[in-house]
Amino acid sequence: MTVYRRVLVLGGARSGKSRTAQQLAERASSERTYIATAQAFDDEMRERIARHRAERDGSWHTVDAPLELPQAVQAHTAPRKAVLVDCLTLWLSNIVLAERDPTSEGDRLIQAVRQAQGPLILVSNEVGHGIVPSTPLGRMFRDEQGRLNQRIAGACDAVVFVAAGCPILLKPSPSLQLDLE
To answer: Would 178 be classed as within a structural domain?
Structure first.
């Protein structure tokens, strides 16, 4: 069995990606930290956050990092301690709304991911499969999310795509070769 230290779990909304990531973390270590990026600006989001917390047992330590995710990753990763970040999409949204530069913030996160000393699982939405957003902000966000996902995938040892609750290993993948004859 191959063991991966840094794993990106991608999927659409309600695909099962958070559940898959939580199961990976729980199998990796009995010492676990959940780094949450959500901010509860309304009742619906407060309910979502409460549901996510209820799905984790008391063995989880929760850290809120809506903007300072690179620092949280650096502070909480350690050998034999699993860290789950959920999710990069909300973090990027927070960065954009705070009028921070997504590229430089992404650089800081990539560095933290590469330096992680223990098991690190990151959750992100694959937003490029849907319709083209109708607003410039929506299109910019979709593009930034796609770029961030690619960069994070490059820094991770494994990438899992989840659809309908079914995880599919994307990386590492067998080399593709085309027969041009």
So the answer is: no
Are 21 and 171 spatial neighbours (Cβ–Cβ below 8 Å)? no
Q: pTM for the complete prediction?
A: 0.92
pLDDT digits (tens, 9 = 90+) for 33-70: 999 999 888 899 889 888 888 888 888 999 999 999 99
Find the catalytic residue in 52, 61, 76, 129: 52
For residue 86, give the nearest of 15, 169, 144 by alpha carbon. Answer: 15
Which is nearest to 151 in space by CA: 94, 110, 121?
110
Please check whether residue 88 lies inside any domain of the structure.
yes
Q: Name 177's Cβ contacts closer than 8 Å, sequence gap at least 6.
A: none
129 flagged as catalytic? no
Note down the domain range covering 31: 6-171
Number of domains, the chain: 1
